[in-house]
Design a protein that fits this description.
Number of strands: 9
Order of helices and strands: EEHHHHHEEEHEHEHEEH
Oligomer: single chain
Helix content: 40-55%
Distance between the termini: 21 Å
Number of domains: 2
């Protein structure tokens, strides 16, 4: 997973895009009468409102997936944004706000510069991610103590969930993943436990009455090392060609998981 420390680089690209748009708009604005401050404020507000609009539009488009977990709507880090809706909201707000209070041209050019950096940076990261991270070749161990190479899962879409029994978010998202495994037999789900013994994992599954296929033990955290994952839980989505399609760091909601699975097939 492409990251800088604990932060996904896409989040850093978004912050850089905001900084570029804010700075560019201010640089194009005369310093007199506090215009630069007003222009910067409009760009910042447009960005935040665009982010909110992108989230609400995504939720509206996938409302059925959010019915089971309504609180996941406000979990912004869970992912799920309609980019075009966000752009429309941001531009619409900028046009309205610049009727009288701030110069329009610098604001729109600043938003355009930020959007261009975000788009180019996102496409570049996606291309590097897909080319750099194939399905790991680690050989794990199944619950019966037998070798289980991840390479055996090639040929179909694969979802690899990195988890541990001590991880609260891992435990909270496990029922969502278990239900998805039953509902999507065309996708292979692999639950790669990181650093725990078979006894610990078996005790957890029994206590939760969790029925899962492909529970594997990764006592040396080989998959985390090979993929560059920085935290638990992390869920990796691989296509049938064995190339990485998406990564989610943190707890998955049902809505986001269903969206990722539709993109995977």
């Amino acid at each position: 997973m492409i990251s800088a420390g604990p932060f996904p680089l896409m989040a850093l690209v978004a912050l850089l895009a905001l900084g570029l748009g804010w700075g560019f708009a201010r640089a194009l604005t005369p310093a007199a009468d506090g215009l630069r401050s007003r222009v910067g404020a409009v760009v910042l507000d447009a960005f935040l409102l665009g982010l909110l609009g992108a989230r609400l539009a995504h939720v509206a488009l996938h409302w059925r997936d959010y019915l089971a977990q309504p609180l996941s709507i406000i979990r912004l880090g869970d992912g799920g944004y309609s980019i075009w809706a966000g752009l429309l909201v941001a531009v619409g707000y900028a046009l309205w706000k610049t009727r009288k209070q701030a110069p329009r041209k610098p604001v729109l050019l600043g938003l355009a510069a930020g959007a261009a950096l975000w788009a180019v940076g996102g496409m570049a990261l996606f291309a590097v991610q897909r080319s750099a991270i194939p399905l790991p070749d680690a050989v794990l161990v199944d619950m019966q103590g037998q070798p289980a190479p991840l390479a055996a899962f090639t040929g179909k879409p694969v979802v690899i969930n990195l988890w541990a029994t001590w991880c609260g978010p891992c435990r909270r998202e496990m029922p969502v993943l278990a239900a998805a495994q039953q509902a999507h037999p065309q996708v292979q789900f692999v639950f790669a436990n990181q650093g725990e013994t078979g006894e610990e994992v078996a005790a957890y599954l029994a206590s939760e009455r969790m029925l899962l296929d492909n529970v594997l033990l990764d006592d040396a955290s080989k998959v985390m090392q090979q993929t560059g994952a920085r935290a638990l839980p992390t869920t990796l989505f691989f296509g049938a060609d064995g190339r990485l399609r998406n990564v989610h760091m943190g707890e998955l909601s049902r809505a986001t998981l269903e969206t990722r699975l539709r993109e995977l097939q």
